[in-house]
Amino acid sequence: MLNIVIFGAPGSGKGTQSDNLIKTYGLFHISTGDVLRDNIKRGTELGATAKAYIDKGQLIPDALMIDILASVLDANKEAAAPGVIFDGFPRTIAQAEALEVMLQERGTAVSTVVGLEVPEDELMRRIILRGQQTGRSDDNEETVKNRLAVYHNQTSPLKAFYEEKGLYQAIPGTGDIAEIFGRIQKAVDAVK
Ligand code: AMP
């Protein structure tokens, strides 16, 4: 199995480059943000819980998020057999530790972590533009500030966590989308 964690701040291009990874490697894509937004759209109980956090730019509590990820993995065993692109998960050390256990229990492991590195002013510009284009409710200036602060405090320590395990590959995330994907492809092919 080829299990890729696509990692980076909000606006770093995780979703866009996940689409390229799916096309090239035929892997199963799990975007935890998409799973939550889909629940909000369908009016589920989980959606109502998630919305309160998302609208404030805060993270959904680890225990809940870990349960959600396990159920998505279990519900898609066949589709996930070639490997999984984890997009937006893990976002905390506790989630990364849980992912390690979850994959171990399923006889597999994280193959590589692709870290999209983008300067802060560029992140802000991209997210505000996405908000204008898609109407995504948490892509407004106030919420974005919180999301970036949450990223720095809770998520960015994962870079060192995965560096220590020799799994982190830094990818400059600015420039042409195809050019960035070329860098990602090189990183993924190196561990295939
Ligand atoms: P995303 O689409 O990945 O930017 O996620 C949008 C929002 O969903 C985040 O700002 C969080 O509120 C929530 N979310 C998504 N993934 C996670 C996660 N792994 N842990 C906690 N909250 C998450």
Task: Characterise this structure.
- This protein is an alpha/beta fold and 192 residues long.
- The protein has 9 helices and 5 strands; from the N terminus they run βαβαααβαβαααβα.
- It is globular and about 40 Å long.
- It starts with a strand and ends with a helix.
- 33% of the residues are buried.
- The chain binds adenosine monophosphate (AMP).
- Adenosine monophosphate binds next to α2 and α3.
Quick overview:
By secondary structure, this protein is of the alpha/beta class.
Which keywords apply here?
192 residues, alpha/beta, 5-stranded parallel β-sheet, 12% strand
**What would you call the structural class?**
alpha/beta
Instruction: Tell me roughly what share of residues is in helical segments.
Output: 55-70%
Determine the N-to-C terminus distance: 9 Å
| Distinct small molecules | adenosine monophosphate
Overall pLDDT confidence: 97
Task: Count the DSSP helices.
Answer: 9
Portion of residues in beta strands equals 5-15%
The sequence of SSEs as H and E is EHEHHHEHEHHHEH
Radius of gyration: 16 Å
Uncertain stretches of 5 or more adjacent residues: none
Largest sheet: 5 strands, parallel
Strand order of the largest sheet: 2-3-1-4-5
Question: How many strand segments?
Answer: 5
> Based on CA inertia axes, which overall geometry fits?
globular
